[in-house]
Amino acid sequence: MDKEMDKNRGANRLINEKSPYLLQHAKNPVDWYPWCDEAFERAKREGKPVLVSIGYSSCHWCHVMERESYEDPETARIMNERFINIKVDREEHPDIDSLYMKAVQAITGRGGWPLNAFTTPDGTPFYGGTYFPPEDSFGMPSFKKVLLYVSDSFNKNRDKLGELTASIERAFSRDVEQKPLELTPAVADEAFGAAKLFYDPIYGGFGMGTKFPHAMYLEFLLAYYRRTGLEGALQIVRKTLSAMASGGLYDHIGGGFHRYTVDEKWEVPHFEKMLYDNALLAGLYAGAFEVTGSDFFKDTALETMEYLLREMRSPEGGFYAAGDADAEGREGDYFVWSAEEVQKVLGNEDGERFIEYFSITEEGNFEGKNTLRIAPSAKGPEEPLAEDIKRMKKALLKEREKRAAPAIDRKVITGWNGLAISALARASSAFKEPELLKEAQRCAGFLIKGARVEDGRLARYIIDNKAAKKAALEDYALLGMGLLSIFEVTSEKRWLEDGKTLAGEMIKLFYDPEKDLFFDTAVDKKGLFMRERDLTDNDVPSGNSAAAGFLLALSKGYKDDRYKEFSLKILGSIARMKDEPLSCGNALTVLEACLGNGG
Fold first, then answer.
1. Model pLDDT, residue 599
2. Distances from the Cα of 194 to the Cαs of 73, 191, 581, in angstroms?
């Protein structure tokens, strides 16, 4: 009891939550609430606006804003006096995150994390932003000024807020009011045309400046090539996969991919590592190996899976959500190297070879040290690493394990684990590796039994072997897809039957027959100003595109066209495939599966 009192001393309401992100904020002087009815009821009773602040445990700028603002007594005083403050883990509540992200983007034209949305007492947003500095800087007002301005505006202009919130709600309905899309090869052809337009032929990837992997869009291009044989699609995939796995986006010592790079050359990453990125990319590299026979792609996929199995697997067989960008408050320290450090571990001769191979310099390219990037002269684009380099990597991994490691978010998120199951099953087939299939089956069995909350519903995640929060649409669809991926490799009916059960629950809880689409939020979830459905394939497949893929696979497994018709209705309702193909990679991949089967 005394230990419990010590733990709670100086803590706010978040101290009793399970989320590692919320627990990071449990000792803030801010009077935080978790997402709950009580917070909004108090806001209505006291006539105060609400601050919904959203982030996640491995987010670098979330940590920065916490240190600068949420831990500052004066900032906390303003927040507590003028607002009801709610802290949300976006990984616990993807529907809440999506809803408020859309709103803030509609209001300000930009989004990101930490996300700070200011709402009326009923939760309808009227202003927001991302990171705010503690003092005025770079043309940005301080967070304290923003808080005072928003509070004053809310109190003085309440009559105008109704007009603003109504316009936001209208904006949310546009996605599902478009004319249904005719599912023809022309849709895929136009998406390939967009790929050529946005493709960076020099460095690979899409766009300029900050580079994200866009794994789902590359997956579509790979599927498009399989159906059409157009070499241009495969060329984009090959160059991009080679560039990403050669550059600083990839962790050459420990395996796996970081979140994105801040430059167009794939050199300097934002160092957090997410389960969903690594699952999607491992599966993509396995698929690319099947098409190209590239051993470099095979090695990349296997190293990424080795990383997941070594560092991200729970004792029960699930996979943790994320690894932090920071270690002991310093971003990237765990992953970067100086020439001196390399030579100390490897010796002069091996050290010089490694330094040249991975573009290491005395001055470094990140705060005096180096991200590792394979020098273009070291090997061909898809040539595998030399055996002596692999040996040196193992020695440096052993040395790196002595460093203070980034924190791991130990949530075993159901949907993200579904992606991992799919990747493991796919790789087991591509590489003839039965151990990977066993890991997929172990993870799936753990989730089927363990990912259930008290009323029997599927859980959003498991932590410390306890299920927490009710699942979102993406959890049902992505776990279902994982189960079907195992069935496709093994032909064992139990995976198909478990998938059918999940599909029935998913349809009952999330389907909207008026729009032939699913809501991301279950029918009984309370507190949101509207039920969300995001049709964009962002970090993970959208719930609707994932559901379309799951139901299509179920129709194939059962040879039942009713599931396929369901899938086609959903796809036809994702009209943005035609206008914004880069944000619909998974939907386009499902479309390719339909077209390839004569759908």
1. 43
2. 50, 5, 7
